[in-house]
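Working notes for the structural subgroup meeting. M.R. asked for a predicted model of this chain before we commit to crystallization trials. I am recording the input and output together here so anyone reviewing the notebook later can reproduce the run.

Input as submitted:
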Amino acid sequence: MRGRSEWCISRQRAWGVPLPVVYSFPTTSSDPIASSTPHLTTSNIAHIISVLDAHGTGTDYWWEGAAEEFVEPAELARAQAEGRSWRKGTDTMDVWFDSGCSWTLLRELGLRPSGGPGDLPLADVYLEGSDQHRGWFQSSLLTAISASSEASPRAPYGTVITHGMVLDEKGRKMSKSLGNVLSPLTVIHGGKVGSHSQLSF
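Returned structure, recorded in token form:
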């Protein structure tokens, strides 16, 4: 942990969870990007969440709504008086940071008491493929330790179990990038995959 380099959690992708940053710039500016000032406060993030909740489509509405909708009213009024306009950030969150914070939901769902001893892991077991030693297992460990206020922070899991990869007929790992994957529906006969199920190879 101490030897790790900094982790840039922003990504420039066409998909993903957007970073909730709005930027103001002089309305008369010929280069809104270069003259932008970020507005990222706790109160404005709360405002953004309320806007997203009101529309009921999750973070998808970030891409559809006008930038001004995501600015808290007091700041919006101040910007209008000062001749500033708004734009939304287009960076998304690193998917490993996003999934690495999933341990925070366990206490919110009541699966672990919030006042337990410091050495109590949040999850008994994390189970994934061996590639997650550098992915989900690692990002969960990093986020849990960095967010902890304990003198000796612990991993958010008690045990890590890894399994091998599903292989194709040539013994290669099935991978989207190789294009050698099978749809789970091809493998599952008579089974039912719910709308919220996720199967991965």
